[in-house]
Design a protein that fits this description.
The protein has about 100 residues and is α+β, with helices and mostly antiparallel strands. Helices cover about 45% and strands about 15% of the residues. Helix 1 runs parallel beside helix 3.
């Protein structure tokens, strides 16, 4: 149980770091507080696949298009906080460069 708790804390710290960076951006999001998933609202009326493509092409970031979760997921892209701290910081650096 100790190891599981440490792993959850590790993921949640990554989620906290991502959420803090997103709070200072124009990207609306929910999540990252009680789970290591963050749901980014697609900007400019983009669909979830369109926003997925934008993140991939513009910042080499990979998430999961919300459309894959059904009609309620459309309009969002899900990010996870399961990477290493170094990868998380790199993802944040790339997000900050988005326009």
């Amino acid at each position: 149980i100790k190891e599981c708790k440490a792993l959850v804390e590790y993921y949640m710290e990554n989620a906290r770091i991502i959420a803090a960076a997103l709070k200072n951006s124009e990207i609306e999001f929910v999540g990252g507080e009680n789970s290591p998933y963050l749901w980014l609202k697609c900007p400019k009326n983009m669909g979830s696949w369109e926003f997925f493509d934008y993140l991939l092409e513009s910042a080499q970031l990979v998430g999961t298009p919300g459309a894959g979760f059904g009609a309620s997921g459309e309009g969002y892209v899900r990010l996870t906080a399961f990477g290493s701290p170094e990868d998380t910081e790199e993802a944040i650096r790339r997000m900050r460069q988005l326009r």
